[in-house]
Structures are given as structure tokens and as C-alpha cells.
Amino acid sequence: MSLGASDFKPDTPRRRGLLQFSPYSFEIFDFAAFSSPGRFLLSMGVVVAILTSELNAFFLKTLLWVPPANLLNVARLTLWFFLALPAVKEWLTFISVRCGGGAGSG
Description:
With 106 residues, this protein is mainly alpha-helical. The chain has a domain at 35-106. Helix content is 58%, strand content 0%. It has 3 helices and no strands. The chain has helices at 13-19, 37-63, 71-98. Helix 2 runs antiparallel to helix 3 (71-98). The chain starts with 12 loop residues before the first helix and ends in an 8-residue tail after the last helix.
């Protein structure tokens, strides 16, 4: 099958602009938390860290009397979310190597 001139769909400038801020490729992560007891405990470390962060946000909001819809609270939680994304990927690599799966096998 040949690609004719009528089959070509040029990207719009808006689409190209949005694609500038997207990653080149997406990785699919499989934590395989139930593959071994050690890996289960290490995977639960991520859950405990997330729940601790949520509890910290709740207590800080209560202690400082900050309304839930305050922009400062939303911005702080959004910043923590984006800072945690690379950390979760590194944690997955760490537990993959530690549990004998090798880097990238998760």
C-alpha cells in the first residue's frame, strides 16, 4: 500500500505545540506486587508514603485553619504530585533490581 498525497494529514500548529510538551514514548509499569513477599513489602512502602503525605496534608490544613479550596493548598499538593512522579519510577527500578527482576523488567 502506497501513501498518496490524499492520505497525508498535516499536523496543525496547535497539535504540534501540544506534542512538544509530551514525552517521546510512554512506559508501562507493572509493579508485580504479589510476585514475592519482599516485593509486596517494598511495593507497600509506596502506599504508606502516599497515605502519610495525605495525612500530613490533612493535619497541616487543620492546624493552620486553611480552607480546603484555598489555592495555596491546591498548589502545594500539585507540586508534591509532580515531584513524586520521578521518585516512583526510581523506586520501581530499585525494587526491580533488589528483588532480582533486573532493571526494566517491571
